[in-house]
Design goal:
With 157 residues, this protein is mainly β. It has one helix and twelve strands, in the order E-E-E-E-E-E-E-E-E-E-E-E-H.
């Protein structure tokens, strides 16, 4: 696959993709891939490329790191959720949308009807990037620079 937008061209074919799919534990379809583009562990920076299948979600989560994103392809949806599990805001981001914000927001993300491809750059000096949550906002998993590096090493072997 090659990402194109306004003359920009990025070949994603040679990347190592970490595939995630949901199971019966979740009430929404989970189907997305993550590729680690780069990291600087000493300063807590991680760059990821994430692609969503059409109308599929990633895991319910909270960003710990300051996060910058750029939608490269498709339509990307971000749904903010309050402490009671209610949707408080639904942002639809077409290709070309650039956003930046601090950590702390609890939300769902999903691809649009054609899916989406999004570049994320995350920064947190401790190396903690985001937490996967259950419906009650309990932490199920913590994603760090090191955890992404371990997954990439497993794929390479």
């Amino acid at each position: 696959m090659t990402a194109t937008n306004s003359g920009f061209r990025f070949d994603t074919g040679d990347l190592q993709w970490i595939h995630h799919e949901g199971g019966p534990r979740f009430e929404f379809p989970i189907d997305y891939d993550i590729a680690v583009l780069g990291h600087e562990e000493d300063v807590g920076r991680l760059d990821l490329l994430i692609r969503w299948a059409p109308d599929a979600y990633c895991h319910f989560h909270r960003h710990v790191a300051t996060t910058t994103s750029l939608v490269l392809e498709g339509e990307h949806h971000v749904i903010d959720i309050d402490g009671d599990g209610n949707e408080v805001h639904h942002d639809v981001r077409p290709a070309g949308t650039y956003c930046s914000g601090p950590g702390g927001d609890v939300h769902m993300e999903r691809g649009g009807p054609e899916g989406s491809l999004v570049l994320f750059s995350m920064h947190e000096p401790t190396g903690r990037m985001f937490e996967v949550l259950d419906a009650d906002h309990n932490v199920l998993a913590e994603n760090t620079i090191e955890s992404f590096r371990e997954q990439a090493r497993e794929l390479a072997s």
